[in-house]
Design goal:
The protein has 15 helices and 16 strands. It is of the alpha/beta class. The structure holds pyridoxal-5'-phosphate.
Length: 394
């Protein structure tokens, strides 16, 4: 049943990856098969002990703790101490059903806490769920441009917008750009204005320039670090993450979320304990991604594209050649779509056009390396065909 004509309701936009249908078909028709690099979905295995814990915890019968079991929150606290050198009380940590869920619902719950505010501040080139969370909460989004070195340029935020802000999202390392943010500056900015700083750190373990960083290293007042086991431990299918930091914010959100029925299943919480407590598998995964990134960047450079190793994350953020000259339009489509199609034709690669990450990113291409080739040969096998890309772009 459609909504009455007088009402203007929320109509969900097409999900970005669902728009890749034609590209997927083109890639599939490549003689070497398709290589899906479009979504950061892990395909390497989680540790055996983690999978074993999923089936043997005996927790499936009863309801799990919405906030997360004491065991899981303690394990996350131990990891935060080992990784970032910050000691948190488990009461400063709570579970979420994967961090996308937290990102998508945070504005909604924060607005219940502060109904007089209606704005979410988010990076202009970013994982789309920050802006979607604002829309789902009936809030406005103010896009914050990137700073020179990456991250977000907080100085551009107008006082009037800061006064209306429920939160500011920071994502470091960034999906898609890989840029690292000045987390100390972000924490200080938020504290000075009474705006909670929500820092999505799901790629922290995959930091290539300098040590992994967390906003909680700059004090916990007014900040939350958001962490996922999806990338760290290849557990995207299990759906578990945590948010950690300001005790009052954690307490409030955990209470509301309990009423909303948001719970990480008990077996997944048990597996998460094992995952948070082990660092060896993460070290292995880091080397896999580092190798894939370096190989793919070299291939793309060989094809005439500008592909630099990111400061963090496992995405290559590649400018579309000639974007400025073509002013974004090549035969009626943005240059990024032309390049997406060219990569599918020439190499069977499925990648994401920049516009999936915001209008300001339309001249860029995100090439993700979370997923290995489905046909068991790395895209390096197609390197000769890749060399044809610049021809296709002309
Ligand atoms: C920046 C960012 N945040 C959050 C997520 C969500 O991860 P999950 O819901 O699996 O924890 C992703 C997934 O790709 C991401 O790229």
């Amino acid at each position: 049943m459609s909504a009455p004509e007088t009402e203007v309701g929320f109509s969900p936009p097409p999900y970005p990856y669902d728009r890749l249908g034609a590209v997927v078909e083109t890639a599939a028709s490549h003689p070497g098969g398709a290589v899906d690099l479009s979504v950061g979905t892990p395909c390497d295995p989680p540790p055996n002990a983690v999978v074993h814990a999923l089936g043997t915890s005996g927790t499936e019968r009863g309801y799990p703790a919405s906030m997360g079991s004491a065991a899981m929150r303690s394990a996350a606290a131990r990891w935060i101490e080992r990784r970032f050198g910050v000691s948190l009380d488990p009461a400063q940590i709570a579970a979420c059903v994967g961090t996308k869920e937290f990102v998508a619902t945070a504005a909604w719950f924060l607005r219940l806490r502060t109904p007089g505010r209606d704005t979410v501040l988010a990076p202009s080139v970013a994982y789309p769920t920050y802006a979607m969370g604002a829309r789902l909460a009936g809030c406005r989004v103010v896009e914050v441009p990137a700073a020179g070195i990456g991250g977000i340029e907080l100085s551009t935020i107008a006082d009037a917008d800061a006064e209306r802000a429920l939160c500011v999202w920071v994502n470091s390392p960034s999906n898609p750009t890989g840029a690292l943010s000045d987390l100390g500056a972000a924490a200080a900015w938020g504290r000075a204005r009474g705006v909670p700083v929500l820092c999505d750190e799901c790629y922290a373990e995959f930091t290539w320039k300098g040590a992994p960083a967390s906003i909680v290293q700059h004090g916990v007042e007014g900040v939350l670090a958001v962490h996922s086991l999806s990338k760290r431990s290849n557990l995207a299918g299990a759906r578990v993450g945590v948010y950690a930091g300001d005790a009052e914010l954690v307490r409030y959100l955990a209470e509301v979320r309990k009423h909303a029925g948001l719970m990480v299943p008990g077996p997944v919480q048990a597996a998460a304990v094992v995952a948070w407590d082990d660092d060896a598998h993460v070290a292995e995964q880091r080397e896999r991604y580092r190798g894939r990134l370096a190989r793919l960047a070299e291939m793309l450079r060989g094809a005439g594209l500008e592909a630099e190793m990111p400061a963090g994350g496992f995405y290559l953020w590649v400018p579309v050649p000639g974007w400025a000259d073509a002013q974004g339009e090549v035969e009626g489509r943005t240059g990024a779509w032309v390049l997406t199609t060219a990569l599918a034709e020439a190499a069977g690669m499925i990648v994401s056009p920049g516009e999936f990450y915001g209008a300001r990113a339309a001249g860029w291409q995100a090439v993700l390396v979370g997923q290995p080739p489905s046909n068991s040969t790395h895209p390096v096998a197609h390197v000769n065909r890749l060399e044809e890309i610049h021809v296709l772009l002309k």
